[in-house]
Amino acid sequence: MIDNAKMLDLVERALDDDPFCPLCGAPTTIEDDAGRLVLVCSATLAATNIFGRLSAAVLPHERHLVIDLRESVAA
């Protein structure tokens, strides 16, 4: 089980290690993806038109798993 201090440390370390997307330079942020905390490029979140969504799907913007909270839930 992961305690709050450990979770906060993992999130802060991820943001410190990768503060900006290497592709476009936009700041990164932490998003909840169904119980998984993921570091993502903030520019991909703002892609609202067809060209922005296509660019986000084709180009490798920053996105990686920081912590999976589903693993720490007792069965």
What is the typical, i.e. mean, pLDDT? 83
SSE-based structural type: alpha+beta
Poorly predicted sequence stretches spanning 5 or more consecutive residues = none
User: In this structure, how is the largest beta sheet organized?
Assistant: 3 strands, antiparallel
Number of strands: 3
The number of distinct helices, counting runs of at least 4 residues, comes to: 3
The shape, in one word, is elongated
SS strand fraction:
15-25%
Q: What Rg, in angstroms, do the CA atoms define?
A: 14 Å
Percent helix among the residues?
A: 25-40%
Description:
The structure is a single chain. This protein is of the alpha+beta class. Helix content is 36%, strand content 23%. The chain has three helices and three strands, in the order H-E-E-H-H-E. Strands 1-2-3 form a three-stranded antiparallel sheet. Strand 1 and strand 2 form a beta hairpin. It is elongated, with a radius of gyration of 14 Å. 13% of the residues are buried.
Helix-strand blueprint:
Blueprint (H helix, E strand, L loop, with lengths): L3 H14 L10 E5 L3 E6 H4 L4 H9 L4 E6 L7
Antiparallel strand pairs: 1-2, 2-3
What keywords describe this structure?
36% helix; three-stranded antiparallel beta sheet; 3 helices; 75 residues; alpha+beta; single chain
